[in-house]
Amino acid sequence: MGWGSQLAEGLRPIIDLVYPPRCPVCGDAIAAQGGLCAECWADLEVPGEPACSSCQRPMDTTVTIKSNQCFACLSDPPRHSGIIAATIYNDASRKLILTYKHGGKIALAPLLGRLLSARMPPLEDEFPLLIPVPLHRWRIWRRGFNQAAMLAQELAALGKGTLLVDALVRHKPTPSLGGLGREEREQALSGAIKVRGSAVKTISGRDVVLVDDVLTSGATSDACVDALLNSGASSVQVACFARVIDGREWTAIVST
After folding, report:
1. Which of 10, 61, 116, 239 has its CA 20 to 30 A from that of 156?
2. Is the dihedral of CA 98, 99, 100, 101 positive or negative?
3. pLDDT tens digit sequence for 153-173
4. Three-class SS of residue 181?
5. 82 vs 238: CA distance, rounded Å
6. What letter would DSSP give residue 80?
């Protein structure tokens, strides 16, 4: 155990005394900082099987007999190489994300990162590049941090890849995409996200994991995937903490 870890362990009783551990979802007392109570753990919905091999959308067993992809992916094949989600978006994951992103509780990043890391497959010979979905500089100034970048940093610390935090740039601010149709979302994102010139050489020929906190309509991730593939990435997977399934309410989560 390093000096920093020893210091943190030594200060833990004092921190717990001043700030008693509370579940970030419901507020109930818990045993240690950085966790959830038993009831809220149980409320998190983890993606299961059968599911679409491309987007992880849950599928009926009768459908999977005919194909391992959902109708949406069959009719409009995605350019990404698959979606990795720690949870399915529901009330519990929504509260975690809102507390983390809009409540400024950045101490939740390690918890969300561990849950996402547990869903990622073992690495093979070469580590992928971990690239977060970018925020426009005005939004970073207002919020103070990029929640996707912090998740990517946690994944890198857990040995899930090599962090390339500033590979993507959001050149123009974009409105919330909630409630917009597909064409409106595409128009709002047109030309908004590009690969930084200095990162093109690093990305070329590499497998990439695009990291975000929530995957909603997929419009933002699609724009990022297109930019990365057009700059020479071999493949791009999308990794997110919460995956919104069609038909569930998600307008309360502001776009990135």
Report:
1. 10
2. positive
3. 999 999 999 999 999 999 877
4. coil
5. 6
6. S
